[in-house]
Design brief:
15-stranded mixed sheet, 11 helices
Length: 501
């Protein structure tokens, strides 16, 4: 829930909380403070880090608060507008080490807004030999998740490794790190930025990349001081990057106006896209920023052609090859998860009557799409919620709509995934028109192929640009906007069939 919705608020604030440890607080009891702002200096919130030592070890305590606000009637919304004027998001994490310095437990708690009964989530992880047992708790349910831990796995994002790192003799650090938010182990790579001018203060510029398998999930630009401590983290985002910077307590806690996130995560389109083009075939060509390349996913509507430094995306109703359709992939796309609780009685009660209908799977998904829309009676940009939470809260935005529809599809026996990326708005949306903004929708294996279903915007069009495909998890949602921040528009053309073809 700490990640905001990839469609709107969720992608931005997730970055600060997922940035990982900054300066190590020392000595014990010393509190380090950080400001959180956009790259053009607009304040978002603050964070702190403290180490508390006791007779049995120590606790590393991190916290974060963000003040967000948005108002105005979004023209893309198919839901009734009831958006809060301002929302406070808070998060607190405690990592416990024993006397030998081994991590034995991790907990984090997130709260969105003043409704402490309904808008919270908590993860409690017990670290054992070769495994982490995680209790993932929300107002809707408690779910146990077991994660296998490889030997030498880290829990500090490499914070201690940086203290002795010499880029001149070791240009690259690589290690496995446990991420409690993702409830998974990630591969982390930290490398010095090449061709950086010498700094008289002795600071070092570096890139930190995080991977799920071979899939790039996040890139942060780090600034290290002489002692190898991180003094600044810059996270590329779509629309506006986020900068987390060490500061003093007074500066960090200085009162601020709520940050209007929705305009911040929108970017003007290089061209005004016509209705006919949206319903046809569009070819996009992107350049990768700063030489950081990643694999763009292919869907049933999106074909990707990669070349050094560029990616070309052809998007139309039948442009793409689709996701893999082998038995193992389809079986995995039917499994219940902590975000898609397709095994819950509440979701099964909605899906079961639809599953029994004598109609095609595509028609079943369309019926479930309409049921999803009927559930979401209130538009809520803040927070990212699971399918079961969404059903209980009856509110959300495009990410909740995508997650709920994906879970209902699985409950009806239809393999589904969640696509996250960008979509185009020609009309004025929060005062900005002709712009792309983050968006999520559902992919389903129906009638022998993968197809897109958009429960928020009613229909799929050729401005849906997929950047990640996941299971509705917060990490995939935030990754899409972060990866979008690494792309630069190179060209965009409408592809039309020649007469006689």
């Amino acid at each position: 829930m700490r990640s905001l919705s990839a469609g709107l608020l969720a992608t931005l604030v997730a970055t600060a909380a997922l940035a990982g440890p900054l300066l190590a607080a020392e000595p014990s009891g010393d509190v380090r403070w950080y400001s959180i702002a956009t790259d053009n200096g607009i304040a978002i919130g603050h964070a702190s880090r403290e180490i508390v030592q006791d007779a049995n070890g120590r606790e590393i305590i991190e916290s974060q608060e963000d003040d967000l606000g948005d108002q105005g009637a979004p023209s893309l919304a198919v839901l009734r507008l009831d958006t809060p004027q301002a929302v406070n998001m808070s998060w607190r994490s405690v990592r416990r080490e024993d006397e030998a310095g081994r991590t034995v437990s991790i907990s984090d708690h997130a709260q969105v807004g003043p409704d402490w009964r309904n808008d919270w989530s908590r993860n409690e992880a017990r670290i054992g030999e070769g495994r982490a047992e995680i209790s993932h708790q929300t107002p809707a349910e408690t779910r146990l998740v077991i994660v296998a831990l490889p030997p030498a796995v880290r829990f500090d994002e490499g914070d201690e490794l940086l203290r002795t790192w010499n880029p001149a003799t070791q240009p690259r650090l690589e290690f496995e790190n446990f991420n409690i938010d993702a409830m998974a182990v990630e591969h982390v790579v930290i490398e010095a930025v090449a061709d950086t001018p010498p700094d008289p203060q002795g600071t070092i510029a570096a890139l930190r990349k995080r991977y799920a398998g071979s899939e790039l999930m996040a890139v942060s630009r780090l600034l290290l001081d002489r002692e190898g401590r991180i003094v600044q983290v810059t996270q590329p985002m779509f629309g506006a990057s986020i900068v987390i910077k060490a500061t003093d307590r007074e500066t960090a806690l200085h009162p601020q106006l709520p940050y209007r996130v929705v305009p911040g995560v929108m970017t003007k389109s290089p061209y005004r896209i016509s209705t006919s083009a949206m319903q046809g075939h569009i070819r996009y060509r992107f350049a990768f920023q700063d030489g950081i390349e990643f694999a763009v996913p292919q869907t049933g509507e999106q074909r990707v052609t990669a070349e050094p430094g560029f990616a070309t995306l052809d998007i139309c109703e039948d442009c793409g090859p689709g996701l893999p359709d082998d038995a193992a992939t389809l079986a995995d796309a039917l499994k219940p998860t902590a975000w898609l609780q397709s095994d819950s009685p509440e979701l099964e009660a909605i899906a079961e009557p639809v599953a029994k209908l004598s109609v095609s799977d595509a028609q079943k998904m369309d019926i479930l799409r309409r049921k999803t829309r009927s559930v979401l009676v209130r538009l809520d940009f803040v927070g990212h919620y699971s399918a079961l939470e969404t059903l209980s809260r009856r509110s959300g935005d495009c990410t909740e709509a995508a997650v709920l529809l994906a879970a209902l599809g699985r409950a009806a026996g239809i393999p589904t995934r969640v696509a996250n990326g960008l979509v185009y708005s020609r009309e004025s949306y929060h005062g900005i028109s002709n712009a792309f903004l983050p968006h999520s929708w559902t992919l389903a294996w129906v009638d022998g192929k993968w197809r897109s279903f958009d429960a928020a915007l009613d229909r799929f069009d050729s401005t849906h640009i997929a950047l990640t495909v996941g299971d509705g998890d917060a990490r995939s949602l935030s990754a899409a906007s972060q990866l979008a921040g690494l792309l630069r528009w190179d060209s965009m053309v409408e592809v039309r069939d020649q007469p006689g073809n």
